[in-house]
Give the backbone structure.
Amino acid sequence: MAMSLAQATLFSRTSLFLSRNGLRRFTFCVPSSSSSSSSSDNLCRKKWRQPVASVLELGGVKIAREDVVRDDPTNNVPDIIFSRLGMQLHRRDQHPLGILKNAIFEYFDTSYSNKFDKFDDLCPIVSVKQNFDDVLVPADHVSRSYNDTYYIDSQTVLRCHTSAHQAELLRKEHTHFLVTGDVYRRDSIDSTHYPVFHQMEGVRVFSPDDWEASGIDSTSYAAEDLKKCLEGLARHLFGAVEMRWIDTYFPFTNPSFELEIYFQEKWLEVLGCGVMEQEILKRSGKVNNVAWAFGLGLERLAMVLFDIPDIRLFWSTDERFTSQFSKGQLGVKFKPFSKFPPCYKDISFWISESFTENNLCEIVRGIAGDLAEEVQLIDNFTNKKGMTSHCYRIAYRSMERSLTDEEINELQWNVREQVQSKLNVVLR
Ligand code: DAH
């Protein structure tokens, strides 16, 4: 997830899917007790269920808290994540994410005479197969770990990218489509990372008729068309900027690229894309076709376009935030209304083998919610006995009001208690 001060950090983060195994610092064990049937099919196809208190309707499906948050070792979805399900910020025309989504739609509608089908209400509960297998994410890829992804049960996840819908839409014979939606990832806490963010996926399928006349091979044809399309999109959003293409790796595309633009004196990664792996098309019954695909993070771009300094602001219902944006107004600069200072609290402990930073951050978010601004490792050493100590600095800050000492002390006290009881570490 996304900078001015935030920008430096934002830009250095790369996609979870950028390497063959998604090399990250830690992996986490997958719980062994598992249910073999997938609940995503049930959940996302169930058109009706018993009315329950907090049910929400997503993509025509009713979802209750107990469908998503369960006291079961195969489930790692906390309440705070359930509370974000169904908010659909990208479907609000007056919200920066909705304004950006509409501006992208406008580009595609104009450039391709409304040929792209648009989906922005697909259920975020998907099967492991949809999220990973269908887009060829390797079995040992770190993105599949319980440390990185929210599992509802062993076969069902909250989608961690909109690529999860590629295969099903191809099977349904869509050849030009855009999928926008909320995506979920367990992650660190800072101004550019939030466990729920929004992505847009684009796919275009070509037939032999399209490339045969061109005299170039199908892959080069698709790659050229892809680059032209996305350069046009970047100009539509950012104006006449300098751009560059970086070769990269994604499991779902080959060749794969990233587009960067030179904006506000920095190279900014705008999106990932490539020529779709032939295997994905083949499995969807398309043996004579070639396709391109791209994926972009809406917060990342909106933070830059609207000068929004902290990713938590997208969730703010404070009128001083919401009233600054209006339908169709891309790039209006946000004027910060809060300069309340952060309050820092440190916590040190001896870690165990199973310790991960994402698990720590989940505890902090569970207690402090959006008051948690940053969790930063500030000290790390191993003693002669081989015991490793970590010291984290937690920054608490409200975007909307000042916090009292009492309030922060209580939050920190609860964090200490839960860290000790849930993370198998020894406080120092
Ligand atoms: N799914 C990728 C991610 O979340 C983004 C992406 C990259 C999507 C390349 C694509 C693609 O369709 O071709 O990091």
Notes: The chain has 14 helices and 16 strands. Residues 351 and 425 are 5 Å apart (CA to CA).
